[in-house]
Write a structure and sequence with these properties.
The protein is of the alpha+beta class. The chain has 6 helices and 3 strands. A 3-stranded antiparallel sheet has the order 1-2-3.
């Protein structure tokens, strides 16, 4: 779902984002950047019993990058590691009720950082 404008849901997550900070304990960290506009997102995860118990983010970037990272953490919490590995930018865009075409790369920093954090856990998914 694409839009030329920012949705109410996207603006709400930008203005009052949930899950800002660092997971405690922190078992995994991933970072992604959008070099076109200098957005950077770091996602940290706390894992318990094979599920994401806590997902937190820190983003330096535009409203779409912040809301996209926030949405990524909201989508991932409570999921198994395999379920979280399947979260895509398209899932984030859908959860935000659309993102302008020109901002899709901004929305992707959250899912990319999540994927890197999950890869840091290794193939067995165990905490480091």
């Amino acid at each position: 779902m694409e839009s030329r404008f920012l949705s109410r849901k996207l603006l709400d997550l930008f203005l009052a984002p949930a899950n800002v900070g660092t997971a405690n304990p922190c078992h995994a960290t991933g970072q992604a950047a959008n070099p076109a506009c200098n957005d950077v997102t770091v996602i940290t995860l706390a894992i318990k019993n094979g599920r994401i118990a806590q997902a937190r983010f820190q983003t330096q970037g535009c409203a779409v990058a912040v809301a996209g990272a926030c949405a990524t953490t909201l989508l991932s919490e409570g999921r198994t590691l395999d379920e979280a590995r399947r979260i895509t930018t398209a899932d984030v865009v859908l959860s935000l009720d659309g993102v302008p075409d020109a901002k899709l790369a901004c929305a992707s920093t959250g899912p990319l950082a999540l994927a890197k954090a999950l890869r840091s856990l290794g193939p067995d998914g165990g905490t480091p």
